[in-house]
Amino acid sequence: MIIFKCRYVLENIYVDIIEVKRPNLSDDAPFSEKFLWLKIEKEALTVTPLTLRSVDSSGEVEERYFEEGFLKFNNTIGTFIEKYNSAQHLLQYNDCLEVSEQTKNAIMDYFAQRINA
Fold first, then answer.
1. Is residue 95 packed enough to be buried (19+ CB in 10 Å), middle (13-18) or exposed (0-12)?
2. pTM listed for this prediction
3. Domain assignment of residue 31, given as a range
4. pLDDT, mean of residues 69-93
5. Distance of CA 70 to CAs 24, 55, 79, 97, 104, Å?
């Protein structure tokens, strides 16, 4: 079984943007393998990794720049703007305990496919 810990969850009725940590990896594993941002389309449960390019934090506001878009959030709301189709997702910041079982299973399936690829 693939284990992961949720760090951040931003969601709306269509999409989840989640940062996960894989604690079962060794301490010398690459940062990009231990900490991953994922975009999950809720209807199809499609998991797409987001390629982190840079991070900015000003205390109250967090910003993440990905190859696939831009995420800005605080402890209540956020916005993800997709780079390639300019879609804008208004998101609610949620507790990791609120992640659905379907989403957790989709993430575990994603990790299992990466390992078996």
1. exposed
2. 0.89
3. 5-116
4. 94
5. 28, 10, 8, 25, 23
